[in-house]
Amino acid sequence: MVAGKDMSGQLEWSVNVPNGRSEILVPESGAVNRVCLGIKGLVVGFVLKIWRFLEKAWNLGVSEPKKVIHCVKVGMALSIVSLFYYMRPLYEGVGGNAMWAVMTVVVVFEYTVGATLCKCINRATGTFLAGSLGIGVHWVASQSDEKIQPVILGISVFLLASAATFSRFIPSVKARFDYGAMIFILTFSLVSVSGYRVDKLFDYAHQRLSTIAIGTSICIIISMLLCPIWAGDELHRLTIRNLKKLADSLDGCVTEYFKEDETESINEKDTNNNNLQGYKCVLNSKATEESMANFARWEPAHGHFNFRHPWKQYLKIGAAMRNCACCIETLNGRINSEIQAPEFLKRHLSDVCKRLSSHSSIVLEEMATTMKTMRKSSKIDLLVGEMNFAVEDLQNALESLPKQLMISSPLLAIEASNDAKEELIMKPILIPLMDILPLATVVTLLIEITVRIEGIVDAVEELADQAEFKPQSDQKKSKQNQPATDDHDDETVKTLQKV
Amino acid sequence: MVAGKDMSGQLEWSVNVPNGRSEILVPESGAVNRVCLGIKGLVVGFVLKIWRFLEKAWNLGVSEPKKVIHCVKVGMALSIVSLFYYMRPLYEGVGGNAMWAVMTVVVVFEYTVGATLCKCINRATGTFLAGSLGIGVHWVASQSDEKIQPVILGISVFLLASAATFSRFIPSVKARFDYGAMIFILTFSLVSVSGYRVDKLFDYAHQRLSTIAIGTSICIIISMLLCPIWAGDELHRLTIRNLKKLADSLDGCVTEYFKEDETESINEKDTNNNNLQGYKCVLNSKATEESMANFARWEPAHGHFNFRHPWKQYLKIGAAMRNCACCIETLNGRINSEIQAPEFLKRHLSDVCKRLSSHSSIVLEEMATTMKTMRKSSKIDLLVGEMNFAVEDLQNALESLPKQLMISSPLLAIEASNDAKEELIMKPILIPLMDILPLATVVTLLIEITVRIEGIVDAVEELADQAEFKPQSDQKKSKQNQPATDDHDDETVKTLQKV
């Protein structure tokens, strides 16, 4: 017999089996199951989250193998520096202070050679200065009464730490010696204060310096000799990439604005949109450029770059590019605007505008080539001239617009009544200003963009002068050598952006 | 007798005095003097350089007293933590490892509370995780043969250090746990490797953790209790300042474009230029905003802000503002452009354009007030409506332009021959498109700016919803309380910008 009982508000089923006992039927899809499902969901969610994280990491690794190499280099540097623990003679050589060497490697090893050098030099200088000062203050304190000693030490720590902290707010110090100032505070506090407890202070300072020297030299050697990643090189590539992106964006924007065919496949649209958005990278790369340029100044001569390569000029090029990108962003805003110019007007100017934009992007691409090959362009004047001719063409097209419309008006007049036809052909058509507005803006923006592109050209030419680029003679040879690696690099970056 | 001799290429004068000796005349204005002058110049130059540096620092301190307070706080924290050296019971309490506490204070104490908290939590977590893992790996190694021990330790250091370094490249980790990952590598290397030499590894790890706890708690207490500088507060103020700057820039640009009187004093021009350039600060504040928003998330509830205040929304407001600033930058470019619209056209549109720009800046200022008082604005819909009416007015003015010109043409016609006068009055004047172009662009840009300002309004209203701003009821009361401090702040910032 099967009976249903309501116990404590829950329905429970029991079966009276033949031997007199009644067995409770536990509902399979009940609380336990729900808990199981919940846990299962949590675990699956957690695993999925980790999986996605790992996938992201894997994609990052695949798209930027340099970063993976950097990680291997850090691992290697740490393994090497830990030899100071494993090998007794080495360990005793640094008086059991191998810890500082390990710490130095962890803290100082950065992605680019320039950053590593900057930190190494800052750390060494900061430690040395603060160490000497700390020993001096400690000597002064030790000459005085034992009770006043902590007071002197405390006040000196307070004053110097405050002053050094303040110096870190001053832009010129912050840009180059921020880390050094921190190490100065750290070492000064440690040396002067611990001098109160440590007897052989001089030995202590000496050991610290020597372990730091060991750590920094391991870092410098590994980061410079094993697949070095130069900040200068990265900055140079970034600038070239940004120039290309600007060219693509400009071309893409103008094509998009004047395109007539709406039956574009979604794929094409996506690619086009990606190209269009390139100017955003340019707008956002200020901070990266500044830190790269800052680190590049610490780097020795490498590749095509001298020790005194004018890295600051790259910032000027960057500023000129952002200036231009701002204009392209406004232009891009016009594409998505609701108010559009009448089609016949657009058609009239489509060709001249497209020609101007293609001439402008050719100039930008020529600049990218100049930087890539590091040779002065022989044809840049010609190209800028052509761009300016295109501007003139556009202006002429605008000026001839009323006349042109008079000629093309019969087409429109067909729709008008026959009586008025004669009149329409004879009179110039008055285009309401509101209709011209959107197109006029696009035209002005295009002209403005050419002006700003000339700013970029000037900045690049100044760089070419300062860095003494050679004239373009055997350009073809160098073109054959370089693009292969660089194109690969560009693809890498595009993949990264998707990540 | 006086004789000139040429010795070793230099002219030398000697005087034969009566007693037969000849004395060499040393030219007073010669080499020694020149060296003296050179040294003097160097010293003066050096002193001047230092003087200028100190002046800069002083100005920075005067304009941003918060930074000076921060420096004093760092000095205090260090003085307090060094008590662990001076007082014997404290020193012995941490087993002579007071060094780690000092180090923690130096490394962890940051300008804002959020940054300090972020670093403290990262440091504590990183140390704890890496310490446990290090002890585990050390235990595994200690079970094996003594010769294999360094190999196991070395491989584990290599693998974990590489992995942790790689994780620092992943954007989500980099934003929040960059410092923690570094501390993880540091502690893991130290614990696992030094375990090879240090006997009481557990004690070592325990002491490190406790000293770090001491250091971090001193930092947190001092940074939160003594004149705390909240990242969230700074971000909030920055956003308000940027809104005001946008409003000033827009107004300034339009006034500058339509101004007729060229006899402006240089002082006025300077002030105006300063106002005009405000949008540049907006364009450049992306990095600051991001780091502030990142730190603000670590902060507890403070002032008007809850723990879960929607800091991310500030980034959206920032993006909307930069979007608008880009347009203003293009507009600003038009002011300095060589091609200008004819004066009579400008005069015709001057009033409507100025009205539109003033309505737009009123909307921006209302947004600034909304954020400052943290109360939903009751009149924003009205103000946006007025702005849109102004847009319509501008459009109407443009549409009526041909007719208007017909009316105003007699003025122009006076210059024409009397015969043609009648004709001129009757016919509409055809303005060449090239002449309209610059003005048309300015008009379109102004309209585009209003669209983007609506984007800002949407973003701020979303913030008001998310942060549950109260409706504006006792607005006047809060207005009386707040502006005094904020205005002072604004002045501070302006002074700083001059520095």
UniProtKB/TrEMBL annotation, chains A, B:
Q: Which UniProt keywords apply?
A: Ion channel, Ion transport, Membrane, Transmembrane, Transmembrane helix, Transport
Kindly report the protein's main subcellular placement as a broad class.
membrane
Task: Return the InterPro entries for the record.
Answer: ALMT
Q: Which Pfam families match?
A: ALMT (PF11744)
Compositional bias, Basic and acidic residues, is annotated for 468-477
Q: Where is this region: Disordered?
A: 468-499
Q: Where in the cell is it found?
A: Membrane
Give the record's membrane topology: Multi-pass membrane protein
The organism's superkingdom is given as Eukaryota
Looking at the UniProt entry, the stretches that span the membrane are: 68-86, 98-117, 124-142, 148-167, 179-198, 210-231
Q: Name one GO biological process term.
A: monoatomic ion transmembrane transport
GO cellular component terms listed in the entry, alphabetical order:
membrane
- UniProt similarity note: Belongs to the aromatic acid exporter (TC 2.A.85) family.
Q: What is this protein called?
A: Aluminum-activated malate transporter
Phylogenetic placement of the source organism: Eukaryota, Viridiplantae, Streptophyta, Embryophyta, Tracheophyta
